[in-house]
Design a protein that fits this description.
With 156 residues, the protein is an alpha+beta fold. The chain is built from 2 helices and 11 strands.
Length: 156
């Protein structure tokens, strides 16, 4: 009985550790697939040096990104908020993995990214186009991605 309890406890600890969470460390954001986060950046000399998490959500359903882009309402708000959605979904019926960025800094935001493929242990660089302020910016991949790291944020 004691051995069974030990095995069950070990199994529970492994499951808890396997559930990835969003992490922010020194201006670097790691986002597992199926997460949405709202951030307030700390800006110094046009560089984003850190973030404060305002809101975090789990995304459990596949998103139709064509519908999301079609229904996006552009505004002129400049509240320095940054919304990041990293999710599996579909675009015009095709399965994709998408990073959706809505940032309201009043400036174009450039950053770098690394992705980790499902089942992999290392991250590889990927290209990212700068995100305009007050617009829905989408980066998409057909690869089966489980996590993304965003870093080196700059405002132009």
């Amino acid at each position: 009985m004691k051995r069974l309890l030990s095995i069950v406890s070990l199994f529970v600890m492994l499951i808890i550790q396997a559930q990835e969470k969003i992490s922010i460390h020194k201006g670097e954001i790691t986002i597992p697939i199926g997460k949405k986060i709202m951030l307030k950046p700390e800006i110094k000399s046009n560089k984003i040096i850190n973030f404060e998490t305002v809101k975090e959500e789990n995304i459990t359903e596949k998103i139709d990104f064509f519908d999301m882009l079609h229904n996006y309402k552009k505004d002129d708000v400049k509240d320095n908020s940054i919304e990041l959605l990293f999710s599996e979904g579909q675009l015009m019926g095709s399965p994709i993995f998408v990073l959706n960025v809505i940032q309201k800094t009043g400036n174009k935001m450039a950053f770098k990214a690394k992705i980790r493929l499902k089942g992999g242990s290392s991250y590889q660089s990927t290209s990212i186009i700068p995100a305009a302020s007050n617009s829905a910016h989408m980066e998409q991949w057909k690869d089966n991605i489980d996590s993304i790291i965003l870093y080196d944020f700059e405002l132009n």
